[in-house]
């Protein structure tokens, strides 16, 4: 078999400052988990989210792979219905379980590692984050690296089933700590990224099929999860429409075509050959805001 390019993800994004809008006094909480599509460089031991900077640290837009704000930054600084504090534990390059699908480096925090960090820091509801089940939304955007680092393997279908089992074990940990509101984002059509297009049609059919399986398992597993756990409210957001809107209409979003990339985050749809730029992140944020709505987003 021809060797397929795998993805190795840890990128430095340009840090662009933008002013935070005035916010209300009583916050809602947005606790997020994910990979480089979600990372903002948040250090939970550093400055905590506040009215001036809902990311806490670094300053808006954070350390992202979009060239500016990513979907989380848009949600807490532009699409927020009131004050929304972001506790973002996402780690660039993350997979769900590093023992099942290895990330690019052992230093990357997997979803399991991120959940462990949550359990150590946020689960006790510290004085600096007195969240409750009512005012907190847990957001998870995992899978880009799970599928990107496995889609060519012969046992990929069984492997993805195991991965989603571990994924929902992490949601159970969040539930047991008191989380009741869950936002899950599906894997986008990364076969349309400049990196994966280079692999050719046959490779991308396998990738698309693996993405479909992953996303189907998110939906079916959530139904099972809700049947076992009372009081759960959930939203599953399909990210494909946001990506396809930009990819199908690149000039509408300031790009000359659907495959160019530039770290300014605005002159092309892609920040680099695998990470979407600002326009796609804004479209994803709009999809989430419409789906979830009040009291977090508008």
Report what the structure shows.
This protein is α/β, with parallel strands linked by helices and 298 residues long. 34% of the residues lie in helices and 9% in strands. The protein contains eight helices and five strands, in the order βαβαβααβααβαα. It has helices at 71-77, 111-121, 144-148, 156-177, 194-197, 201-228, 240-248, 278-292; strands at residues 28-34, 84-88, 136-141, 181-185, 233-237. Strands 2-1-3-4-5 form a five-stranded parallel β-sheet, sandwiched between helices. Strand 1, helix 1 and strand 2 form a beta-alpha-beta unit. The protein is globular, with a radius of gyration of 18 Å. The protein starts with 27 loop residues before the first strand and ends in a 6-residue tail after the last helix.
Concise structural overview:
This protein is α/β, with parallel strands linked by helices and 298 residues long. It has eight helices and five strands, in the order βαβαβααβααβαα.
SSE order and pairing:
Blueprint: E1 28-34, H1 71-77, E2 84-88, H2 111-121, E3 136-141, H3 144-148, H4 156-177, E4 181-185, H5 194-197, H6 201-228, E5 233-237, H7 240-248, H8 278-292
Parallel strand pairs: 1-2, 1-3, 3-4, 4-5
Helix pairs in contact: 1-8, 2-4, 4-6, 7-8
Considering DSSP H and I runs of 4 or more, what fraction of the residues is helical?
A: 25-40%
Structure classification: alpha/beta
> Strand percentage, roughly?
5-15%
Largest sheet: 5 strands, parallel
- Strand line-up of the largest beta sheet: 2-1-3-4-5
Mean of residue pLDDT? Answer: 92
Query: Secondary-structure element sequence?
Result: EHEHEHHEHHEHH
**Count of beta strands:** 5
The Cα radius of gyration reads: 18 Å
Task: Note the overall shape.
Answer: globular
| Number of alpha- plus pi-helical segments | 8
Poorly predicted runs are: 1-24
Distance between the termini: 49 Å
Pfam families: Lipase_GDSL
Signal peptide: 1-25
Keywords: Hydrolase, Signal
GO molecular function: hydrolase activity, acting on ester bonds
């Amino acid at each position: 078999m021809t060797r397929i390019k795998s993805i190795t993800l840890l990128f430095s994004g340009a840090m662009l400052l933008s002013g935070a809008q005035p916010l209300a006094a009583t916050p809602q909480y947005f606790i997020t988990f994910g990979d480089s599509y979600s990372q903002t460089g948040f250090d939970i031991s550093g400055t905590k989210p506040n009215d001036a900077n809902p990311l806490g640290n670094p300053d808006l837009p954070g350390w992202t792979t979009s060239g500016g704000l990513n979907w989380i930054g848009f949600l807490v600084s532009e699409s927020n219905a009131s004050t929304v504090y972001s506790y973002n534990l996402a780690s660039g390059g993350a997979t769900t379980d590093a023992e099942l699908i290895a990330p690019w480096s052992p230093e990357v925090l997997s979803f399991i590692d991120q959940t462990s960090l949550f359990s150590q820091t946020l689960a006790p509801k510290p004085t600096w984050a007195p969240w409750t089940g009512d005012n907190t939304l847990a957001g998870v955007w995992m899978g880009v690296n799970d599928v990107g680092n496995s889609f060519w393997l012969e046992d990929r279908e069984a492997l993805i089933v195991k991965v989603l089992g571990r994924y929902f074990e992490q949601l159970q940990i969040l539930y047991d700590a008191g989380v009741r509101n869950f936002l899950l984002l599906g894997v986008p059509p990364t076969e349309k990224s400049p990196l994966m297009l280079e692999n050719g049609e046959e490779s991308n059919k396998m990738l698309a099929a693996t993405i479909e399986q992953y996303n189907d398992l998110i939906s079916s597993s959530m139904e099972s999860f809700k049947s076992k756990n009372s009081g759960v409210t959930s939203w599953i957001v399909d990210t494909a429409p946001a990506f396809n809107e930009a990819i199908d209409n690149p000039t509408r979003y300031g790009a000359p075509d659907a495959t160019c990339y530039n770290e300014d985050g605005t002159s092309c749809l892609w920040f680099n050959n695998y990470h979407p730029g600002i326009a796609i992140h804004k479209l994803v944020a709009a999809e989430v805001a419409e789906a979830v709505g009040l009291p977090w987003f508008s």
